[in-house]
Amino acid sequence: MNRPTTSSSPSPTTAAHDARTAADAATAQAAATQATAANATAANARAGSATAASTTAESTAAAPAPAHAAPAATHLPVVAVVGLGTMGAGIAEVLARAGHEVIGIDLSDAAARRAAAALESSTARAVERGRISPAERSDALARFRTFPELQAAAEADLVIEVVDERWEAKREVFTALDRIVKPEAVLATGTNALSVTRLAAETARPDRVLGLHFFAPAQAMRLVEVVSTVLTSPRATEAVTALVRSLGKEPVAVGDRPGFIADGLLFGYLNQAAAMYEARYATREDIDAAMRLGCGLPMGPLALLDLIGVDTAATVLEAMYEATRDRLHAPAPVLKQLTAAGLLGRKSGRGFYTYQAPGSAVVVPDAETPADGPERAAGRTVRTVGVVGSGTMATGIAEVFATSGFEVVLAARTQDKAEVAVARLAKSLDRSVAKGRLPRERRDEAVARVRPAAAYDALGEADLVVEAVAEDLFVKQQLFRVLDKVCKPGAVLATTTSSLPVVATARATGRPQDVIGMHFFNPAPAMKLVEVVRTVLTADDVHATAHEVCGAIRKHAVDCGDRAGFIVNALLFPYLNNAVKMVQDHYADVEAIDAAMKLGGGYPMGPFELLDVVGLDVSLAIERVLHEEFRDPGLAPAPLLEHLVSAGCLGRKTGRGFREYARR
C-alpha cells in the first residue's frame, strides 16, 4: 500500500457605465468584509480545496436500491480516517470531539504523532478557554487511536480516505478497504478532482461509496460537500449527511464531476491568472495585488497557487479539462513546467514566488522581485487636476485628488451638474468627518480646492485631466477631441475606461503619446487599486506621471497592457460566467453555489449575489467584450445570462435577476 498522506459587446451605454459603478461598489463591499475570511481561505487552500457543490434530485432518484441498507447516522459511531496529514488530522479531531470513536491510519509514525499532538493541543486550549471540561478532554483523547495498517479499519462504520490526490493511491486504498471493512460500512473519499464513480466501481459495494469533501481547516470551516454518484444509495447519502450535520457542519449535496462547485469555479480563475503571468501581460506582484485590492480577496491567485501546490492545481485542472473540454480548464503550460521542475510552491520552497524554506510562508527576493530603486523616467509635474464627469465615479476621483492636496477643476456638461457633483463630494466628506476619519478643517480645505465648471475651457491649465464619462467609445473619443484642443501642451490625458481600448481614445487626439488609462475602482475614495494602462503610443514620462500621481493620492498602481478587461475584469467575469453555466447545466442551483463559495471559500458574496448587484446587463456587456477580444469559446456569455437580460431581469436595480428583490 502506498503511504497515506493528506491531499492536499457592444460598447456599453451610459446606463451600463452607471451600472459599472455599482459593480465597483459591490467590489468595495466585498473588500470591506473579505479580510475577515482570509485565514480560513488560506488554510482551506492548504488542503488543495476551495469550494462546495450540489447535485440534482434526479441523480439521487436514479440511484439503484442498495444491496445492504446503509446504517443511520446514529449507527456510525466508529469512523476510520485514512491519511493523517493536515486534512486527515483535522477531520479526526472534529469527529473525536463530537463523540465518535476515531481510528486514525497512516504508515508514517510521524504523521500519527503529529495528529495526536494536534488533538492534545487543541483540547488543552479548549479547556483553558472553558469550552470543555478536563473530563471531556480526556474522553476525546481516549476516543482517538492511531494505527499503521488498513486492517485497523475492520470495525469502522464509516471510512474517510484522505490520501494523495492520485488515482493509483486511492484505488489501492479503496480496493484494500473493500476486502477489510464489514459489509454494511460506508466508504468515503476526500477527493476533489478524481471520479468518485470510478472509485466506487472498483469495489463490491458501489452503493455505499461516496465523496466527503471537507474544507481546511476542518475544525473551523463549516462546509462539507457530500458527493453522491449514480450508484450511491440514498440511504448512504442520508446517513452521512446526517452525520455531517451532527458535527455542526453544513452539508451541501453535490454531483460527481471534477472540482464540484467552488473548485470548479476557483481553479479556472487560477488557471487564467497563471496564463496571464506566463504571457507576461503583468507581473506576478501586480496580478496578485490587483485581485486583492480590486476584488477584496485575501490572497492573489499566484500566491494561492503556491499555497495549494502547483502540482495539485495542475492535477485538478487536468481532471476538469478531461470532463469539460473547456480550454479555460486546460492547465496553463507554466503549471506543468513548474511541476516538472519540482517548483511546487510553498511546500518545495519555490513556485511562482521563492520562499525562505520549504513549507515557509515567508517570501524572499528573487530574480523577478521588483527593484527598490526608481527605474522609470521622471514624470511630469502635476499641481492642478481636471476631472470630467458628474457621476459617482467622477465625484469620487475628484474627492481623492482634493483630499490629497491637488487643485481640482470638476467639469460637467452644465453648471448645475457640476455644482451638484461638488455638493455630493462635500456630503461624502461630511460622512468622513462624522465617523472621525477626517478633521473638519481638512474637509473644508478639500472642498475649497474643488472648482465646478460647465465649460471644458476651464481645463486649459490642468496638468492632468481624468475623464469619467459614459463607457461608450464614441462619447470618449468626442470628449478627447475637445480636450486635445483646450488642454495645454504637455498635459496628461487619462481615461478611466474598464473595457474599451485606450489606444482608440488616444488616436482621437493629435497627442496620443500623452494619453494613458487610469482605471479607478468605485468608490474611488475607499478602493486602493488603480490599473495603469499603457498603450503602444504612451510616452515614458506619461507612464511615470501616472505612477507618481497614484503614489501622491495613496493608491496602489498596477501596470497592465491595453486589452479587454485589463487584470481584474479579465479574471473576475469569466468566474461569474462559469457560475451561470453551472446553473444553466442543472448541476447546482443558485443557493448551493452561493453557499459553496461563501462557506467553503470564505467569499463575502456568492457569484449570483455579486451578479445581481453589478447588474446582469453590465456583466453581459463585459463578457461580450472579453469574448470578442480573445475569441475563446469558453468566454462566450452563458445563454442563461443573455436570456435574463433580454427579459429585463437585470438584478437588484429592476427587482429581479437571479433572485427576486423587494421593489423600493
Write up this protein.
Helix 1 (14-34) crosses helix 11. This protein has 664 residues and is of the alpha/beta class. The strands form 3 sheets. Strands 3-2-1-4-5-6-7-8 form an 8-stranded mixed sheet, sandwiched between helices. An 8-stranded mixed sheet has the order 13-12-11-14-15-16-17-18, with helices on both faces.
Question: Topology, please?
Answer:
Elements: H1 14-34, H2 38-46, H3 57-61, E1 78-82, H4 86-97, E2 101-105, H5 109-128, H6 134-142, E3 144-147, E4 158-161, H7 167-180, E5 186-189, H8 196-201, E6 209-214, E7 223-228, H9 234-246, E8 250-255, H10 262-278, H11 284-295, H12 301-308, H13 310-324, H14 333-340, E9 354-355, E10 363-364, E11 384-388, H15 392-403, E12 407-411, H16 415-434, H17 440-448, E13 450-453, E14 464-467, H18 473-486, E15 492-495, H19 502-506, E16 515-520, E17 529-534, H20 540-552, E18 556-561, H21 568-584, H22 590-600, H23 607-614, H24 616-630, H25 639-646
Parallel strand pairs: 1-2, 1-4, 2-3, 4-5, 5-6, 7-8, 11-12, 11-14, 12-13, 14-15, 15-16, 17-18
Antiparallel strand pairs: 6-7, 9-10, 16-17
Number of helices: 25
Span between termini? 63 Å
Low-confidence stretches: 1-73
Name the strands of the widest sheet in spatial order: 3-2-1-4-5-6-7-8
Number of strands: 18
Rounded Rg? 28 Å
The share of residues in helices is 40-55%
Shape: elongated
Largest sheet: 8 strands, mixed
- Taken as a percent bin, the fraction of beta residues is 5-15%
Structural class: alpha/beta
Which whole number gives the mean pLDDT?
A: 88
